[in-house]
TrEMBL record:
It comes from the Bacteria. Pyridoxal 5'-phosphate binds at F140, D225, E226, V227, Q228, T283. Its EC number is 2.6.1.11, 2.6.1.17. It comes from Providencia huashanensis. One of its GO terms (molecular function) is N2-acetyl-L-ornithine:2-oxoglutarate 5-aminotransferase activity. Binds 1 pyridoxal phosphate per subunit. Its main location: cytoplasm. SUPFAM superfamilies: PLP-dependent transferases. It is found in: Cytoplasm. InterPro entries: Ac/SucOrn_transaminase_bac, AcOrn/SuccOrn_fam, Aminotrans_3, Aminotrans_3_PPA_site, Class-III_PLP-dep_AT, PyrdxlP-dep_Trfase, PyrdxlP-dep_Trfase_major, PyrdxlP-dep_Trfase_small. The modification N6-(pyridoxal phosphate)lysine is found at K254. Keywords: Amino-acid biosynthesis, Aminotransferase, Arginine biosynthesis, Cytoplasm, Lysine biosynthesis, Pyridoxal phosphate, Transferase. This is Acetylornithine/succinyldiaminopimelate aminotransferase.
Length: 404
């Protein structure tokens, strides 16, 4: 314990780059959907590491996958392949539209690869001017210079010098806006089927189907960023499966490793073959340690029991939120899909999501927001009914105290 007491929340302000403003407590242990801090206080976790901990903290199968693999082989680089990466690629391709997979370590890297691939495909197959990328306002695609420029929130991209060119942003769920800007020089349309950071907004079926048609008419690729919405989060393995719309490229990360850094970009044979040896790369991507955890997580998430359980848990959350709203009138809308839930704030709590997060922590609840005015729920996909009930009581207490 002595080692732990030698660092505290103030240590962060002394030694870390000041780009985060973490909570006042420091989590030190987690199990399922419960977490304990340095002082031993218990919390219910509705944040799930921002949709990462799909199977909760320290799931036994993931723990044993790490342990077993850590005693065999950690890293060989991409000069060699490895069994765990090949197995995970087989699982991803046989469960989806894709034929080929590429593994990296984060959502940003998966999206970076997707955007580079889309440009390469268009330039190789059509002409050097087919480079326009259409993306959406309020979208979030990562923090590298390319991905943050494709993301539709200027506050994250401004102030870092010239941005990559030929990227255009239009309003989400607005098919006419896409129609107005798509042309023969468009290489790709990029979107999150459910916008996460931007406020938990799901695409409409008509919008996604319309975008797919426009892409086909203009020889443009459709890229789905399922970093947050994928891996069971919406009740299907990937959220495109709800819409009867198939993308050309899909990225996934967050829940893919259940907390271990791993991400993937998957695509078809036809598109993949425009990349040749040396055209892109990664040092850690597809390492045996990450892929072993990915395999263990995939085998549990891609089961009827887990996927069907998502909708049941969603209904329980929604019932609690509606009840809370009847009492306090603090939400204008509750939206999202599966266990990616957004509650838009209203009335006395307008734009006060951060206050709610702090008040919730005091009650022993780890919460998330999606901007100043949306509470975001991305708990474990296997969180127990009892933990949902208990966490919602804490949220209600926190909101009650704030309103007083």
């Amino acid at each position: 314990m002595s080692e732990q007491q030698s660092v505290n929340r103030q240590t962060f302000d002394q030694v870390m780059l000041p780009i985060f403003s973490p909570a006042e407590f420091i989590p030190v242990k987690g199990e399922g959907s419960r977490v304990w801090d340095q002082q031993g206080k218990e919390y219910i976790d509705f944040a799930g590491g921002i949709a990462v901990l799909a199977l909760g903290h320290c799931h036994p199968s993931l723990v044993s996958a790490v342990r077993e693999q850590s005693e065999k082989l950690w890293h060989v680089s991409n000069i060699f392949t490895n069994e765990q990466a090949l197995k995970l690629a087989q699982k991803l391709t046989s469960a989806t539209f894709a034929d080929r997979a590429f593994f990296v370590n984060s959502g940003s890297e998966a999206n970076e690869a997707a955007f580079k691939l889309a440009r390469r495909y268009a330039i190789t197959k059509y002409n050097p001017y087919k480079t326009k990328i259409i993306a959406f306002k309020q979208a979030f695609h990562g923090r590298t210079l390319f991905t943050v420029s494709v993301g539709g929130q200027a506050k994250y991209a401004d102030g870092f010098g010239p941005k990559p060119a030929d990227i255009i942003h239009v309003p989400f769920n607005d098919l006419e806006a896409v129609k107005a800007v798509i042309d023969e020089n468009t290489c790709a349309v990029v979107l999150e089927p459910v916008q996460g950071e931007g406020g938990v907004t799901a695409a409409t079926s008509a919008f996604l189907q319309g975008v797919r048609k426009l892409c086909d008419e203009n020889n443009a690729l459709l890229i789905f960023d399922e970093v947050q919405s994928g891996m069971g989060r919406t009740g299907k393995l990937f959220s495109y499966m709800h819409y009867d719309v198939t993308p050309d490229i899909l990225t996934t990360a967050k829940a893919l490793g259940g907390g271990f850094p791993i991400s993937a970009m998957i695509t078809t044979e036809e598109i993949a073959k425009t990349m040749e040896v040396g055209s892109h790369g990664t040092t850690y991507g597809g390492n045996p340690l990450a892929c072993a955890v990915g395999n263990a997580a995939f085998d549990i998430i891609n089961t009827e029991e887990v996927l069907n359980g998502v909708e049941k848990r969603r209904e329980l959350f929604i019932a609690h939120l509606n009840k809370l709203n009847d009492k306090y009138h603090v939400f204008s809308e509750i939206r999202g899909m599966g266990l990616l839930i957004g509650a838009e704030l209203d009335g006395k709590l307008l734009n006060r999501s951060k206050d709610i997060l702090q008040a919730s922590a005091v009650e022993g609840l780890m919460m998330l927001n999606a901007g100043a005015n949306v509470l975001r729920f991305t708990p474990s996909l296997i969180i127990s009914e009892e933990e949902i009930n208990s966490g919602m009581v804490k949220l209600e207490t926190a909101i009650g105290k704030l309103l007083k």
